[in-house]
Every structure is written in structure tokens, then in C-alpha cells.
Amino acid sequence: MVLATWVIVLIVVGVIALLIVGLYNSLIRLKNQVKNSFAQIDVQLKRRNDLIPNLVNTVKGYMTHERETLENITKARAAVMKATTPEGKAKASNMLSDTLKSLFAVSENYPDLKANQNFLQLQEEITGTENKIAYSRQHYNDIVMVFNTKIQFFPNNVIAGSLGFKEEKSFEATAEERKNVEVKF
Fold first, then answer.
1. How far apart are CA 49 and CA 18, in angstroms?
2. DSSP string of 51-110?
């Protein structure tokens, strides 16, 4: 009778240990997916940062009066490169996206620039990269949601908390990006 009790206790302890190990491993997998997703955003941000100097150099010859716009792009690019946290990268990246939009808007005043093949190609590459950044952010947020949901479920929340797992933050739009766009004809 005593032996049977010990066997049952050992089986129960073994099952609980296996469940904890399984949970821990799945949390590690998700945590690594979060890190990888963030790294993919970094890849796209680096690509955009690499394209910007070429774009600025192409534009410089045409835009003699728009030096402030070019300086803002350079400052925003530097801020993206210096940012280390997801929140910092998101904020700096959003600022850079806004300055690029203003550059493309200002370029409308320069017909020769708009016809320049280098400018058009760079503009297309940056636009494509912006789309990839948006997709990468969306994928990151999806993975963060799965991870955060997993560590919030009971009993996972008790075990995950004791193992040191904490919620991750999503990339979020800035207040400026949430404003309604005003279209005038």
C-alpha cells in the first residue's frame, strides 16, 4: 500500500515536472520568436537607413531651398541608428517615416527631380522598404500577442512569473500617426 502511494506520488510529480518543462520550453520558443521578429524589423530599418544617404545625395543637387528637410532626414536617420529599445526604435522610425513623406511631398515642386531615374528608383525602394517595415511590425506584434497571451493564461501566469518571463511591448503608432488624414481637393 505504501509502495503504491509512492508510485502514484512519483507519477503525479513526474507529470507536473513534464508540464512545467513543456511550458518553459514553449515560452522560450515564443520568446525567441519575439526576438527574431524584432531583429527582422531591424533588418528593414537598416535597409532603409542604407538607402537614405543615396536618396539625400540625389536630391541635394535639385533642392537648394529645402536644406531643412534634408537635415531633418539626416537627424531622424541618426536617431533610428542610436535607438536600442523597441519603443525607441518605433518612435525614431516613425519620425523618419514622417520626414521621408515630407521629402517626397517637397519633391513634387521639382519636375527635373521627379524625372530623375536614380530618385525614382530610390523612392520606389524606400517605399517598398516602408511596406516591409510595416509588415515586420505587424508580424512582431502578432508574435508578442501570442507570447503575452501564453504567459497570462492560468496556471501559466504563475509558472511564467516565477521563471522570470515578463510581457513584451508591441510596436505602437504615435499620436501623430493616429490623427485623421485631411484630404483637400
1. 46
2. HHHHHHHHHHTT-SS-HHHHHHHHHHHHHHHH--SHHHHHHHHHHHHHHHHHHHHHHTT-
Residue 157, CA atoms < 13 Å, CB-side half-sphere: 6
SS3 168: coil
Inter-residue contact 69 to 101 (CB < 8 Å): no
pTM for the whole thing? 0.61
Q: Please report where in the chains the cell 507519477 appears, as a residue.
A: 11
| Cell representation of residue 47 | 535597409
pLDDT by position in tens, the chain (length 185): 788 888 888 999 999 899 888 888 989 999 999 988 888 888 888 887 777 777 777 676 666 556 677 777 778 888 887 888 877 887 888 788 877 777 777 777 666 666 667 777 777 887 888 888 888 888 888 999 999 998 888 888 888 888 888 888 877 766 555 555 443 43
Q: Do 155 and 16 contact (CB within 8 A), yes or no?
A: no
C-alpha 95/C-alpha 155 separation (Å) is 41
Mapped onto helix, strand or coil, the DSSP state of residue 171 is coil
